[in-house]
Amino acid sequence: MGSRIVTVVLVALLAALQAQLWFGRGSVPRVASMQQQLRAQQDANEAAAESNQRLASEVQDLREGLDMVEEKARSELGMVKPNEIYVQYLP
To answer: Looking only at Cα atoms, what is the longest distance across the chain?
Structure first.
């Protein structure tokens, strides 16, 4: 009779643990759902990082591009800023 009670208690404990595994807070379906959400968020983060990199590159090009445009305007078109004198030396 005593071993039968121990067996029943152990089976009940095993059933409670299995119920927690399948339906509880850290259940298998919930973990799978959270992994899917994690993958989706990682994909969104990668897309945002690529977009940020592209925008940073555009900003850098614009910053450097203005200097390049000014340099070309000065050398090729002879443009000058206000209160500047343009002198061209031809050998």
So the answer is: 116
Alpha helices (runs of H) in 1-91, residue ranges in sequence order: 2-23, 28-77
Kindly state the DSSP code that residue 24 receives in the 8-state scheme.
S
Count of domains forming the chain: 1
Domain coverage including residue 27: 2-77
Q: In angstroms, rounded to a whole number, what is the distance separating the alpha carbons of residues 58 and 17?
A: 56
Q: Which amino acid is at 85?
A: I
Question: pLDDT tens, 12-53?
Answer: 999 888 887 777 777 788 888 999 999 999 999 999 999 999
CA 37/CA 25 separation, integer angstroms:
16
Classify residue 83: in a domain, yes or no: no
